[in-house]
């Protein structure tokens, strides 16, 4: 049965179709096992075929963007892992609007806006990942959030017969590091509305944001960015630090001595070690402060003895 659906996709997809593909090198933590099948669709016809195969064979599937904010199990990932890197175009529209593919890197989008004298995303300079992932998680920095700039989003939902939809900004329901776009949905592209501005001033702001991020996020090893969302009152890193967890280790995974809301791979760490350290930090902070920290990191695959996340 497996051979049948894999053969169908590998023969008919225009994009890449890679069985048993290692994923560690595609993540910023540099850990994780293999995808049963990694695909990189090239156009909407590929997405339509993927949706049909996923529905017909009831396959699990996941989207992997730029590899930041994600922890992949060493046990591998069953089903299909999808990378939207083929959808990376940026098109300028009227009135400072941009149409951007989900696979475009956020860094490239920020640079494009700055170079064209457009304001609204320059503070996100240096934030890793893709536009699709940024929209799903409403990425933000320096007082700006990408959701504020979204006009509409093209969404692909493989489980539905009518798989392609257009969501308005209101339907996305953006909030702090959150949107209504769940794991059932895939961003294909988005229309963003920016503001006219002086290109020189925007470049200065972008460079300032980059310099600040380089200094603040020099944490000493491969990482996935901030591990926990800030709670409604307070900052995650302060709670972790107050509990004396800065520098705490599980195997070769460590709470960064430089920034307590980062976990670094000090060399040879496993996904299971990182996972265990995340849960150790959560339980310690909850025990000492009563605050349950919510991971900002998305976990793919199975971890621990009973966890399937």
Sum this structure up briefly.
Helices cover 29% and strands 25% of the residues. Helix 3 packs antiparallel against helix 6.
Helices and strands in order:
Layout: H1 2-12, E1 16-22, E2 34-40, H2 44-57, E3 61-63, E4 70-72, E5 77-82, E6 90-93, E7 97-101, H3 106-115, E8 118-119, H4 131-136, E9 140-141, E10 144-145, E11 150-156, E12 164-168, H5 169-172, E13 186-193, E14 195-196, H6 199-216, H7 236-242, E15 249-250, E16 253-255, E17 263-265, H8 271-289, E18 298-300, E19 302-303, E20 307-308
Parallel strand pairs: 2-5, 3-5, 4-18
Antiparallel strand pairs: 1-2, 6-7, 7-13, 8-14, 9-10, 11-12, 11-13, 15-16, 16-17, 19-20
The total of beta strands comes to 20
Q: Tell me the strand percentage band.
A: 25-35%
Tell me which CATH architecture of the largest domain applies here: 2-Layer Sandwich
Number of domains: 3
Compute the number of helices: 8
Looking at CATH, which topology of the largest domain would you report? Uridine Diphospho-n-acetylenolpyruvylglucosamine Reductase, domain 3
Low-confidence stretches: none
CATH class of the largest domain: Alpha Beta
The helix content is 25-40%
Radius of gyration: 20 Å
Strand order of the largest sheet: 6-7-13-11-12
Q: Helix/strand/pairing class, anyone?
A: alpha+beta
Distance between the termini: 25 Å
Order of helices and strands: HEEHEEEEEHEHEEEEHEEHHEEEHEEE
Tell me about the largest β-sheet.
Answer: 5 strands, antiparallel
Shape: globular
pLDDT averaged residue by residue: 94
């Amino acid at each position: 049965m497996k051979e049948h659906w894999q053969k169908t996709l590998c023969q008919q997809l225009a994009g890449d179709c890679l069985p048993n593909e290692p994923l560690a090198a595609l993540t910023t933590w540099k850990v994780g096992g293999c995808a049963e099948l990694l695909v990189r669709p090239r156009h909407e016809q590929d997405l339509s075929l993927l949706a049909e195969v996923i529905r017909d064979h009831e396959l699990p599937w996941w989207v992997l963007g730029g590899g930041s904010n994600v922890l992949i199990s060493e046990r591998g990932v069953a089903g299909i892992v999808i990378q939207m890197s083929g959808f990376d175009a940026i098109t300028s529209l009227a009135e400072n609007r941009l149409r951007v593919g989900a696979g475009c890197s956020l860094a490239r989008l920020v640079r494009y806006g700055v170079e064209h004298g457009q304001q609204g995303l320059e503070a996100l300079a240096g934030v890793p990942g893709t536009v699709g992932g940024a929209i799903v998680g409403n990425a933000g920095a320096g007082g700006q959030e990408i959701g504020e700039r979204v006009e509409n989003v093209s969404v692909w939902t493989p489980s539905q017969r009518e798989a392609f939809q257009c969501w308005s900004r209101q339907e996305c329901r953006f909030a702090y590091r959150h949107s209504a776009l769940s794991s059932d949905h895939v961003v294909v592209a988005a229309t963003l509305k920016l503001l006219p501005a002086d290109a020189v001033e925007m470049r200065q702001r972008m460079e300032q944001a980059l310099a600040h991020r380089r200094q603040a996020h020099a944490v000493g090893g491969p990482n996935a960015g901030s591990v926990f969302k800030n709670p409604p009152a307070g900052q995650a890193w302060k709670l972790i630090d107050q509990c004396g967890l800065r520098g705490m280790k599980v195997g070769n995974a460590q709470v960064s001595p430089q920034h307590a809301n980062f976990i670094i791979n000090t060399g040879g760490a496993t996904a299971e070690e990182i996972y265990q350290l995340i849960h150790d930090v959560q339980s310690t902070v909850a025990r000492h402060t009563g605050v349950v920290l919510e991971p900002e990191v998305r976990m793919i695959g199975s971890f621990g003895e009973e966890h399937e996340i």
